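Step 1: inspect the first sequence and its C-alpha cells.
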Amino acid sequence: MTFRQFAFNNVFRNKRIYAAYFLSSLFSVLVFFVYAIFAFHPGLSKINPSVAVGLHLAEGIIYVFSFIFVLVSMSAFLKSRKKEFGLMVMLGMTNQQLRRMVFLENVLIGFSATVSGIAVGLVFAKLILMAAQSILSLDQALPFYLPWQAVLLTFSAFLILFIVISFFTVSILKGNKLIDLIKGSSAPKKEPKASIVLSILAALLLVVGYAIALVVREEQVVIAMIPVTILVIIGTYFLFTQLSVFTINRLKERKSIFWKKTNLVLFSDLAYRMKDNARAFFFVAIVSTVAFSAIGSLVGFRSMLTSALVNDKPFALEYISNQGNKQESEHIQAIEKELTPINYKKGSIEIKHAPVKNEDGDSTEWAIVPQSEYNQLARIAGETDKQVNLKSNEAVLLYFQNSFSNLPDLPKKVSRQIGEQNVQQIDIQLTNVIGTFEDKFVVSDELFKKLESTKTDTYYAFQVENWKSTVDSGKKLMKDMGVVETSGHDMNNMFQFSSLAYDWNIINQGYGAVLFIGLFIGAVFFVAAGSFLYFRLYADLEDEKQKFSMIGKLGLTDKELSKILTVQLALLFFVPILVAVIHGAVALTALQHMFDFNLFKSSASVLGTFTAVQLVYFLFIRFNYIRKIKESI
C-alpha cells in the first residue's frame, strides 16, 4: 500500500465524521456553482444585467464564508483525531509524513466535494433555471446552456480554497508533543467556572440591547442599529461562555434538581460541554441570526411594497388625461379594445381645479370632483363605505391615502369658499379611490356645474377582478402609448397611464432577484450552522460511548439513556438556535417599527421554516447518535 493509498483509506475509515463535512462543502460548492450558472447566463444578462452583478457579489460572500467554515471544520476534525495521530507517530511516522498525510486527505475531500457539487449542479441545472425564472418573475425563459465558464470558475476557485486550507490545517499540527497527541481529548479538564460579574453583564447587555431595539421608532432604528448589534454580540458571547455555565453550576448546587432521577448524569458534564462548545455555539447563533434577519427582511420588504401598491391602487388600469390632451379618445378606445375579452368595469370622473379660501382668507388651488361620479368610482372599487351624500352647499375633503399615511390632525368641520360659492366642509375622508395623488374636495353635482375652473382633467378607472392577468395588456398599452415606464407619463406630460399588474410584476422582479440571492446565501449559512453543531457533537462521540458504557453496567436502562441523550442533545442543539430565533425576532420587530408595517406574517414564516428544518435535522442526528451510543454498550 502506497502512502497516497494510506491517506485515501484514512478518509473512508473516518467517513462517519467526514460525511457531514463533505456534504456541507458540496452544498457550498453547489450554491456557488448555481450562482455562477446564472451570472454567466447569456439570457439573464440581457434581461436584467443588475442581477448578474448581484450574483457575482453573492459568490464572493459565499467564497469567503466557505473559507472560514472549512478552516474551522478541519481544525475540529484534527483535534478529534489526535489519538490516531499519536499512535501513528509512535509506530514511526515522522512529523513531515503526518503533515503530508493530512494535506493529502484535505485535498482529496476538497477535490471530491468540488467535483460532486459541480456534477449535482449540472444535473439539476435545468430545474434550477426554471425555478429561478419563477422566483425572478422573468417574462422570458432561461434556456439551458453549457456553463463552461461557471464550471471553470467554480473548479479553480474551490480547488485553490481547499489547497490553501490544507496548508493552514497542516500548520495546526506543528509543535504538538507526542504525549499531547496520545492523551487527545482524554486529558483531564479543569472544572468549568463562570464569573458572576460577566454572567450578570451578559444578561444586562442582552436586556438593554433588546429594550433599545424594541423601543426606538422610524429613523431612530437606523441610529440605534450599530450600538444594539454590538451590545447583542458581546452579550451573546458572554451568554455561552459565562452565563450558561453559571446557570448549570447553580442548578447542580440545588439538590432537589441535581439528585432527581437521571439529572445527576445529565448535568455531570453538561457544563464542560457548554464551556468547550461555547465559541461554536456563539458562531452558530450569530450566523443563524444573520440568516434569519436577512431573509426575513427581504421577504418582509417585498411583502410591504407589493401590499402597499395593491392598497394604494384599487383599479387594474388607470388613465389620467390632462387638459388639452388630443389623444384621450384614441387611448380610451385602445384600452377598452385590449380589455374586450376580459370582464371589466369602467368609471370616469371629471376633475376641476379652482381656488379655495378658508376662514382665514388664505386661497389655495384645489381639485374639485362631483358627488355622483365619485360615488360611482367608489362603488366600482368595492368601497361603498366611502360614498358620500351631500347637500348643495356641503363638501367633504378627500385626503389622499397611501399605506403609510394617517388621517391628518385638521378640523373636520369648517367653512370654505370654493370659487364664488360658500360651502360647509362637513368631514375629512381618507381615500385612494381617485388615483391622482392629490387631495380633493367632493361637492354636490349642482355646485360642481356652477364652478369655473382654471383647468379640467379627467380620470378613468378600469376594474378587473383578476387584475394579475393584465400584465401583458398593461405592458402592450404602455408601449403603444409611448409611456415612460419609470414614471407612467408620456413625453409631453399630457396624460398618465398605469397598470397595477405591470407595476406589481416589476417590484416582484426587482425584489425577486434580491430574494433569490438572499435565500441561497441564507441557506449556506444555515447548513453551515447545523453542520457546526453536528461536528461538535460527533467530535465527543467516543468519550460519550465510554462514559455511558460504564454507566450502563451500573443499571442504566435504555429508556433512561434515551431520555438523558435526548435532553442533552436538545439543549446543545437548540439553545444556539433559540437564541438566534429571539435575536431575529427582535431585529425584525425593530424593522417593523422602522417602516410602521406589520411584518409578523413574513417573519413568522421565515423563522418557522428554519426552525422546522432544524427540528428535522435534530431528529435525524438524535436517532443516529443514540443508536451509536447503544451499540457500544
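Step 2: inspect the second sequence and its C-alpha cells, then contrast the two.
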Amino acid sequence: MLISGTGGEGGLHPEVARHRRIFVQWASARFGVDISTLMAGMGVVIKIGQGAKPGIGGHLPSSKVTQVISSVRRIPVGVDALSPAPHHDIYSIEDLKQRIDALKEATGKPIFVKVAATNYVPYIVTGIVRMGVDGVIIDGHGAGTGATPLVVRDNIGIPIELAIASADRMLRDEGLRDRVTLIAAGRISSADDAAKLMALGADAVSLGTALLISMGCAMARTCHRGNCPPAGITSKITEDSVIVDHDFALRSARNYLMAFMEELRLILDYLGIDDVRRLVGRRDLLRGFCLDEVIAKILGVKDESCSGDHGGPVDGGSVWTPDYSIYATQLVRTGDVVIVSMGSTGPPEVEPPKRLIDWLRFDGAQVTKPAIDPYREDIDTSATLARGKLWLSMPVIIKPPRTWGGKELIGISKFIARANSTMIDLSDADIIDSKHLMRVMWNNRVTGLGALVTTYSRLPEPVIDVPTYIRITNVEHINDALNTLVSNNDRINGLIIDINESDYPEMYLVKLDIELRKRGIREFTDLIIHMPSIRSSGDIIKLVALGADAVIVSGLVERALHGYTSIEDFRLRLMRLLVGIKREIAQLLGAAGIYSLQSIVGNRELLRSLSGRVRDVFMVKVAGEDVLYR
C-alpha cells in the first residue's frame, strides 16, 4: 500500500486535502493546523526531527511565502516562516505521551512520530514506542529538504542503515518490536535499497528525493530560493512561476513506483520469499563487503573480506569541492548561516573523506533533549583561554595567509579580530605595529601583546606576564613540548598543534587531551589546533568536541577573502566571515541542545564515528554502538 506524507511545516492545500491516502504532519510551528486538517488523512505524524536538519526547526524563506502559502499556513505574506527548533509543549517523554494520546483521542487515527537519526536513536525510538505510538519514522543522514543550514546538513546525523539496525535490535531486546511499525527514510532510491533496509529491520521505507527526480527534478539545488528551473517542483507559487507539468510528473512517478515494486518482487522471488513482511529483520540474507568489524557487528551481518588494497581512511586531495567553495563565498556575502537545499553530498558517503574528522558526526537533539532555538534564545559560543586572561567570543583564531604581507591588510585584520573579540595569529607575519595588540598572537614579545607563541626549546624568561603557548610543528617534538609544558605549567598556558596534516593532527589533539587529563593539568592548560583544511564551522565544532579549546582557521579565511575588490570589500568580507561563523556555531550548538560551548570541549560523547578504525583513533563510538568505548 502506498501512502503519501504531506511534509512541510503545517497547513494543507485543498488540492492535497481531497486525497485520503495521506499522512498529515503535526510539526513544531503548527502552522495552519486544526482539527479539520488532522482529520483529512489516514494518520498523523508528529515531526520531531528530520535527517537533513536534526535539532533545528523548519525554514521557509520569505520569498516563498506567497498568498497561497499565507492562506494555507495562516502566516503573513513575505515573512520568513521559522518553525521553532523544539515543540514548545514537548520537553520530555511524558509530554510526548500526552500529545500522542490527545491526538489519538481527537482523531481516532494512527499516530506516528518522525525523528532524525542521531547518536541515541535506539534509545529514542524505544522510549517513543513505550509511549504507545503506532509507528516511528527514522530519517537518516543525507535525506533531502527544501532549506537547511549547510553545516547542519553535513555534520549532524547518522546513516539510516546504522540507525535502523540498532533501533530494531534494541526494540527486540526490550520485547517491543511487535508493537510498532518502523519506517526508514533518507537516501532510498531503489528496490534493493528498500530490501536491504527491510532485512535490517524496517517494516517499510519512505521515498522523497528519488520520487522528485522521477518527476523531472534535476537537482539544481535552488529549492530554498523558490526557483526550480527544470521542473518547477519547488518554485514559489505565483502567477509567473515555472509550473509543474502535472501530466508528465504523474506519468513518470507512476512508472517509477510500478518499476520499484516490480523490482522488489523480483528480489523477493530470488530469495524465495512470498510476502514482503517476511523479509523484515532477515539479516541472515545480507552480506557485508569490506566493512570493518564494528560496523558489521552493529548491522548484524557477516562481512566478506576484501581483496586487494582498498586504501586508508583518508583519500587526500583538496577539501574545496564546489559545495564548499560556494559556501565560503556565501558566508562572506551575507555574514549569516549559509542555507542550502537537497541532501548532503559530504563525506564519507558521497565525497571521499580527506581528513579523519570527515568520518565524524555531531549529535542532534531529539525528544527528551530538546533543541535550543538560536533565532530566539541566547547561546554562549565563547571560549576562555590562559586561565581566564583571554576571552574569545567564539573558539576561533584567524591566521592570514602570507599573501597578506602588506601593513594595511594586517592592520585591518587586527582591528576586525578585536571588534569580534577573537584572536589573530601573526606568528609568521613580518610586519606588525602597536595597534590592537591585545588580540594578537606573535612570536616576539612586545608590550600589550595578547599572547606569545614560542617553541619548547626557546622558552621566555620566567618573569614574563604574557599568556604563552608552545607551537608544535613536528610530530617528533610532541613529547618534548609536553614535558616542557608539564615542568613549566605555571608560566606556559598551552600547546598549539600545527603539524603537517598528513600526520593527522586531529589524532594528536585527542592524545594530548587525554594525557593532560591523566596528569591532572587539563583544566589549567589550553589546546589549540591549526589545520589549513578547515572549511566550515562544522569542522571547528568537531575539533572542539575532540579536545580543542580554540581552532586556528587559515584556509577558509584565504578562500573566503580571495578576489576582494577593494580595501572596504576586504574589511566587509572578513567581518561577515567571523559573524557568519559565530552564528553557525550557535546553530550547531542549538541543534545539539547545548547552551554553552564550554561544555563541549573534549566531550567526545557528542560525536559518532562512521568507521571502526577511526573509532579506535579518536576513542569515539561508532554510530549505532550502544556501549561505552573500552
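Step 3: confirm your contrast with the notes below.
The chain has a mean pLDDT of 90. The two ends are 45 Å apart (CA to CA).
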